[in-house]
Amino acid sequence: MFRRIINNSQQRTAHIRDGRFVRMLGPGVHWIWNLGCFNEFVKADVRMVIQPVVAGDLIPADVDGATTFEVGESERCVVFVNSVLTHVLGPGRYRQWAVGARVERRTFDIRAAPVALGEEDTLGVNGEWAELVADRGQALLLTRNGRPVRTLEPGRYRFWSAGPWSCSAVALNVEALEIVTQDLVSADQVPVRIKPVATFRVTDPLLWWEAKQPRDILYTAVQLALREAVAARGMDDLLADRKAISAELLERSRAHLPELGVSLESAAIKDVILPGEVKAQFNKVTVARKEAEAEAIRRREEVAHTRQLANTAKMLAGNPVLMRLKEMEQVAELAGHVDKLTLVGGGELVQNLLGGRLLS
């Protein structure tokens, strides 16, 4: 007795007789003798170009129209069908059907350390891996199972999500260190609030990564240096020369820093804030100082003016002609302000004025 097997162009059927593979039936109608033996027929849809080979599969690896390949425990196989990424295969055994499609397989060892990728190495986007680019503004710190190994050179790198390798980006440009306003006491026991500012730059990403909480260590170094600089100065010095204090702050901060793979670029005092009552006292002192300076200036001007008058008087006393010229200048200046002149006196006064006797 016969059994009819029909395959369309996208189907293949494996003929298994008494537990042994006989042949692969291609497209068309097939008649199989079905008496005296146990026949099994396993259909396959070859539109699925890549199919996993399950346990107990009896189809040989070299069967006509298909090839079998394996992916190791530490491997991933990326499959392109007609230049389109279709599969990312994990460990296992797979069958690839030859159906006219252009199939490309690329196998990767996910345990291998990442290397810089060439421009031609493009796999697209997939959840199985990530691609990161190291440029001049940052460094990629390579880690294996969470432990830092080395810094990657500039380039593009691929990291498999199931692999032991990963990376962290470390910025190499100058960054600001946020420091809160500090409540301190000066050498003359005056309470003061100071706002410091600082900037830093990572120079060794590996040391920076290995340090536990490196920003906190950097913060503490600047904080200690600020306390030392303020405690060594009185309030007047703090208000008078911030530039010198900032230079000392930077030097002291660098001295407190351990090996962190970081360069402290700057440290300075941004604001000096006095409590209300202290500020009021300093305002009184400042006003009194300015008033004293103004009084001293007024006295110097008075002395200079008196000295000038004395010199003038001395010159006039020794020179009668110069004295008469000075009198005439004063009379001329006075006459320039007179609009109307009224004379009270006898005819002799008028005659003297007309004769010029008064001015001779």
Molecular structure report:
The chain has 360 residues and is of the alpha+beta class. The chain folds into four domains: 2-105, no CATH class; 110-173, no CATH class; 175-274, Band 7 domain (Tetrahydropterin Synthase, Chain A, 2-Layer Sandwich); 330-360, no CATH class. 31% of the residues lie in helices and 36% in strands. The chain is built from seven helices and 20 strands. It has helices spanning 205-210, 214-231, 235-240, 242-256, 276-317, 320-335, 347-355, and strands at residues 2-7, 11-17, 20-25, 28-33, 39-45, 50-52, 66-71, 75-81, 84-89, 92-97, 103-109, 129-134, 138-144, 147-152, 155-160, 165-171, 175-177, 182-185, 191-202, 262-273. The strands form seven sheets. Strands 17, 18, 19 and 20 form a four-stranded antiparallel sheet that branches. A hairpin with a 2-residue loop joins β2 (11-17) and β3 (20-25). The protein starts with a strand and ends in a 5-residue tail after the last helix.
- Order of H and E elements: EEEEEEEEEEEEEEEEEEEHHHHEHHH
The helix content is 25-40%
Tell me the radius of gyration.
Answer: 50 Å
Class by SSE composition: alpha+beta
Please identify the oligomeric state: single chain
Termini separation comes to 169 Å
For the biggest sheet, the summary is:
4 strands, antiparallel
Strand content: 35-45%
Inertia-based shape? rod-shaped
Query: What low-confidence regions span 5 or more consecutive residues with pLDDT below 50?
Result: none
The number of helical segments is 7
Number of strands: 20
- Nearest-integer average pLDDT: 83
